[in-house]
Amino acid sequence: MKKTLTLLFLITSLVACSQVKLPAPYGPIPSHRQLAWHEMEYYMFVHFTVNTFTDKEWGYGDEKESVFNPTSLDCRQWAKTAKDAGMKGIIITAKHHDGFCLWPSQFTEHSVKNSVWKDGKGDVLRELRKACDEFGLKFGVYLSPWDRNSSIYGTPEYLKYYRNQLRELLTNYGDVFEVWFDGANGGDGYYGGARETRKIDNKTFYDWSNTHKIVRELQPSAVMFSDAGPDIRWVGNESGMGSLTNWCLLRKDEMYPGGDFAKILGEGHSDGNYWVPAEVDVSIRKGWFYHQNQDSLVRSPENLMELYYSSVGRNSNLLLNVPPDRRGLLHENDVKSLLAFRELLKKEFETDLAKGKKVEATSFRGNGFEPSNVNDGNPETYWATSDNIITGDIIINLGPDTDVNRIILQEYIKLGQRVQEFKVSAFVNGVWQPLIDGTTIGHKVIRKFPVVKTSKIKITISKSKVCPVISNIELYRAPGL
Ligand code: FUL
Does the beta carbon of 436 sit less than 6 angstroms from any atom of ligand 1? Predict the structure, then answer.
C-alpha cells in the first residue's frame, strides 16, 4: 500500500512538473568560469614593480634590478586588508610594461632574482599565493604583453618568450581565477639597449588565439580579460564608470586588444554573439603605482561607495587597484579608507526590506516560477512568465508604510541576458508614483532613489527580448537621502 502511494505521488509530481517547461536559454549564456567570476563582484588589483621605487607609471625597461628593494614586504598585510575590506581576490602585476618580473622567471635576468631584496631569493608571487590561501582569497595574474626591456620584443621569438612566462605563472602558483591581458602598447622602450620605437600590429602580432589555448590548457577555470575578452571585457575607461545600459554580450570577433573600441565596450552589444561581461578597473589613487605625493589623494570611503554603485551596481565587477608602497605594504591611508568603505557598505545594505514579503505578479509561468522566488534568498529560483508574455509587473507588498531608497535587481543569467527596459514605482496615497527607469539588468543592478514611504514597490519589465527570468529583488533603506 505504502509503495503504491509513493508511486502515485511520484507520478502526480512528474505530471505537475512536466506541465511547466523551463524557459529556454536565449542568446549567449555564461560559462561556468564566467558564472564564478560574476559571483566575485569586488576584488583587488595590485600594481607593484620597479616603478614603485622610481616613481614612474610606465618604466622604460632600463631600470636596474637593484632598485627593487621593499624594506618590509608583507603580502599577508595585502591579503588581510583585501579580506577585511570584503574583497574576494587579488590580481597582481606579475610583469608590467617595464618587463621586470616579480617572480624569478627562468627566461629573463630582469627579475627579483637579480635584485637585492632577500638576496635575490625572493618571489613576490609565491608569497602572495600563500597569503591568498591563508585568507581564502582567489589569486590572479597580470602579464603585460608589451615588454620594454626585452631585446626581442616585436619579433616572433618574443611570443615564445611571453608564452613561456605565461606557462611559468600558470604552472607554478596554484589555481588562477583571472589572467589579465593589457591592451597598452606604447612603442618606445629600452629593448635590450636598442632604445628605439617598436610598433606592432595589435590585430596580428600577438596571435592571441594560441596564447588563449595555453590558459585553457593549464588553468581551465580561469577567465581571461582583455579589451575584447575572450571571457571578460574592459569597460572602456579607467575612471570607474560602468555603463547604465550594459549588455554582457559582445560581437567580439570584430574586436581585438589595443583597438579603438572604448565606446562600444561600455554598453557591449545587445545582439552580441558571445557572453563577455565588463570589468571596471580603477585605482584608489590617481596613479596605478605608488607615489608618495599621492598619499593625501586617496579616494574617500564615500567616493569608493560611488564607485561601487557605478560598477557592481551597473552589472560589472569592480577591480580596485591598491598599490603597495616602497616598504612593500599597503599605505595606512588606503587601508583606512578601504575598511571605512566596508563599514559604509554594511550599513547601506543592512536589512533587506523585501525578504519574505508577499509578492504578486501580473502573470507567471506556472508551478516553480512563482513571483515569491524573487525574495526567497535562493539564487537558483526565479520568477518567469510564459513564453508568449514578455512584459509584466511584479509587486512587493511591504505591509505597513516603510521608507525605501535602494533596489537590487538580478536576472537568472544562466538563461541569458533578456531584459531591455524596466521601471520601478511606489504606491503612495493610492497612486503609483514613478521612482526610476532603467534598461538592462544582467547579473546585478543596484539603483538609488530618494526615500519614499510606501506600502508596495512595483517593478515593471516593460521590454524584454523573451520572457523575463528574475531571480532576485532586494529593497533597502540606506542612511542619508
Ligand atoms: C593600462 C596600463 O598601461 C596601466 O599602466 C595600468 O596597468 C592599467 C591597469 O592598464 O593599460
Answer: no
